[in-house]
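forwarding from the other thread:

> can someone predict this with 2-acetamido-2-deoxy-beta-D-glucopyranose?

sure thing
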Amino acid sequence: MAVQRRGNVKNSDSKAIEKKIKRANAQRQTFTWRGFIIVLLLLTGSSAVVIWLYMSLSDDVTETLVSRREVLTEPRLFLVQCSEDYENYKQFPGCTPKKCGRAVIDSVVTKEEAQALRRLAERGLSLGGSDGGASILDLHSGALSMGKKFVNIYRYFSDQIREVFTEEDFTLYRDVRGRIQRVIAETFGLDSSQMYLTKPTFFSHINSTSAKTTHDEYWHPHIDKVTYGSFDYTSLLYLTDYGVDFGGGRFIFMDPNSNRTVEPRAGRVSFFSSGSENLHRVEKVVWGTRYAITVSFTCDPDHAIADPTLP
Ligand SMILES: *[C@@H]1O[C@H](CO)[C@@H](O)[C@H](O)[C@H]1NC(C)=O
Ligand SMILES: *[C@@H]1O[C@H](CO)[C@@H](O)[C@H](O)[C@H]1NC(C)=O
């Protein structure tokens, strides 16, 4: 009896246990599903957060100030508050920035003039060229990128120089820089005769070849007044078209809340006060060749340089 009872008990016990196991299995299954859904939701949620963080941290708020297709016959001016950079330098009335900002105009230099200047740059740069993607030619000092260094084009190619450049080239260059100077003066309300050309003023040729020395690293954000000291107004004359002759290579003003781009266009002049209010960089060129001329001005006659002349 005792055995039987025990057997019965055992029987009913094992049935209960079986039921429990089944229930537990079923529960485990629903738990697995629930867990799976929770994990999925967590993953989706966290990846959304990661994407959002990535977008808000790395993907810029980019605004196009002037696109390549637009043609500005009058300067388009964007005023910004002047930085304190100028206070550390001697003040020159009629020139030291009181009004700061950036402007773009397409009617100072014609397409034909831009083409002529581009050919001048091509001829000069064909004598040298950086191993990396960024080469310069400075008609004032004669500096020309060559390999990982620079040579003086006037000394290095003294015999051939008149086969490369003509008097007309230099006349055009001087004429264009004079017009740029006047439009900067008019736009910022300055006395053009109180502004002086300063160095470096140079042609640049940028393609997608990777940098070989720091001279090739044109894309770092910088402030011209901090980098060069003498600069008060920086201007850029573009000689090729963004999206047509090259990709990437847009000019970017890095403002606290937005990156504002200027798309190069042959004959386009972009100019700005050189202080921290105009922190900027150039986007990496990804294909083709970008040609431009940097023309810099100072208010300090001690930093003035003369127009280049053909030796
Ligand atoms: C501007 O671009 C830089 C570099 O690409 C980036 O680090 C910065 O967050 C951008 N600024 C804004 C406001 O989007
Ligand atoms: C970029 O320019 C350099 C210097 O002129 C040249 O040696 C190189 O072949 C060019 N790279 C491309 C991709 O065109």
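The pocket of 2-acetamido-2-deoxy-beta-D-glucopyranose (ligand 1) is lined by residues 60-61, 254, 257-259 (CB under 6 Å). thats all i got for now
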